[in-house]
Design goal:
The protein has 261 residues and is α+β, with helices and mostly antiparallel strands. The chain has one domain: NADH Oxidase (3-Layer(aba) Sandwich), CATH 3.40.109.10. Bound molecules: flavin mononucleotide (FMN). Flavin mononucleotide binds next to β8.
Length: 261
Amino acid sequence: MNDKTKYQIMKNREFLKGYSAGDAGAEQTDQEQELPGIPSLKKRCRPQTIALPVEFDKLGISKDIWDLVMGRESCRKYTQTAVSLCELSFLLWATQGIRKVVGRKEPVTFRSVPSAGSRHPLETYFFANHVEGLKRGLYHYLPGEHALEVWDPAKDYEAELTRALCGQHFAAAAPVLFVWSALPYRTEWRYGVKAAKYILLDAGHMCQDLYLACGSIGCGACAIGAYDQDMLDELLGFAPGPSADPLYECAVYAAAVGKVI
Ligand SMILES: Cc1cc2nc3c(=O)[nH]c(=O)nc-3n(C[C@H](O)[C@H](O)[C@H](O)COP(=O)(O)O)c2cc1C
């Protein structure tokens, strides 16, 4: 290991502890300085939206937590069956759905997954390859409306996506490929330098919910952490970064999903 790598590893270990060397951790956060934060829901920015079905009782959801936890595993092979729109809707609900909203002026969302300070820095995008009732394309989930926003319907992403996922064709060709992004400032506003650690912890909780929710409806999931940051960000249409823009957004995690029974 050369000195540069060792130095970077030391920085990463500081990150795991949730602070930076020097006095950055001691500085007042933007919230403490009473600076404005940003909302935990991204505004709709595409003209076409699709309402999501919520008749989850039709899905025959398994509620046996023992079986779901014991049977959880990463699945990389899926059947030819399409994921139904209701199944997709359930998975979106299970990973980012809003349970309740508290406050009017600066509403705080409480969701199906925990989040440090309920800041909810994550956004859900997905590439739909084989979803009943959806054209192939890229979509964005709007948790506030429990609806989809058609992000980019026109393209066939498979080849570019395979490259962006470091050659993992099974994931690019999966019926659904979720990509989760973060708007780090949502969490940095409250937690300063500790935010990066919390954002990734949030992402872990969310993906575990995806695994369990998939298991409960005959789907399988595989977490994807191996991807080319710049390529994936570009496919999602994010500005190159990192930048100091409070609305800066980048991909942080992904997961492939398909039917297994
Ligand atoms: C953070 C993280 C990143 C991962 N990235 C990938 C990946 O890029 N490709 C892949 O095939 N599996 C990936 N996995 C799945 C692991 O390989 C898998 O969880 C591990 O082999 C254990 O298998 P199990 O999930 O069936 O218990 C990832 C898992 C995690 C938690």
